[in-house]
C-alpha cells in the first residue's frame, strides 16, 4: 500500500445537501490535501462495513483511519465530526472542546440534526460529480 492508500477517508451521504456542502467546506480548508471521500452507498463503504459489522444500518458520517490495514479505525456520528475537526487543525481545533460533552449526548444531538438534514438543505437525486481538480480524492467518483 502507498501512503495515499493509508490516508483517511470520510464516508458521507452522497445525496444529502448538508453533507455535500460539508465536504466542499472540508476541501476548501484542508491544508493537508490528503483526506479522501466516499459515499455511504459506494463499494468502498460496503467493504468497510464488511470489516466493521457494527456499521451496518449506520446513516452517519464515518471517519476511516488507515483504511484496509490491520490497525484500521472507524469513528461515527459526532466522533467522526470531531476527527474531521482534528484533521483540519488550525482554528477548527477550538471545536474539539466539544469532547467535554459526553459522547451519548453529542450523538443524540447529531442524530436530531441528521433527522432534519434533508429538510434543511435538500436531497440530490444522485451523488454530485466532484470538480475535476479534486475528483482524485473521491473514491469511485
TrEMBL record:
Q: Pfam family of this protein, just one?
A: DCC1-like
What GO MF terms are annotated? protein-disulfide reductase activity
Q: Which domain of life is it from?
A: Bacteria
InterPro entries the record matches: DCC1-like (IPR007263), DCC_oxidoreductase (IPR052927)
Alphabetized PANTHER family for the sequence: DUF393 DOMAIN-CONTAINING PROTEIN (PTHR33639:SF2), THIOL-DISULFIDE OXIDOREDUCTASE DCC (PTHR33639)
Q: Which protein, by its recorded name, is this?
A: Thiol-disulfide oxidoreductase
Which species does the entry assign this protein to? Mycolicibacter algericus
Amino acid at each position: 500500500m502507498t501512503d495515499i492508500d493509508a490516508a483517511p477517508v470520510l464516508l458521507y451521504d452522497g445525496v444529502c445537501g448538508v453533507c455535500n456542502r460539508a465536504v466542499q467546506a472540508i476541501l476548501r480548508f484542508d491544508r493537508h490535501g490528503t483526506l479522501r471521500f466516499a459515499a455511504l452507498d459506494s463499494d468502498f463503504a460496503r467493504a468497510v462495513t464488511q470489516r466493521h459489522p457494527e456499521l451496518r444500518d449506520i446513516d452517519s458520517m464515518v471517519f476511516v483511519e488507515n483504511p484496509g490495514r490491520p490497525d484500521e479505525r472507524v469513528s461515527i456520528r459526532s466522533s467522526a465530526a470531531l476527527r474531521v475537526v482534528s484533521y483540519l487543525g488550525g482554528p477548527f481545533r477550538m471545536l474539539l472542546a466539544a469532547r467535554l460533552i459526553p459522547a451519548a449526548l453529542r450523538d443524540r444531538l447529531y442524530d436530531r440534526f441528521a433527522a432534519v438534514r434533508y429538510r434543511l438543505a435538500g436531497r440530490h437525486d444522485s451523488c454530485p460529480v466532484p470538480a475535476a481538480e479534486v475528483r482524485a480524492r473521491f473514491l469511485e467518483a
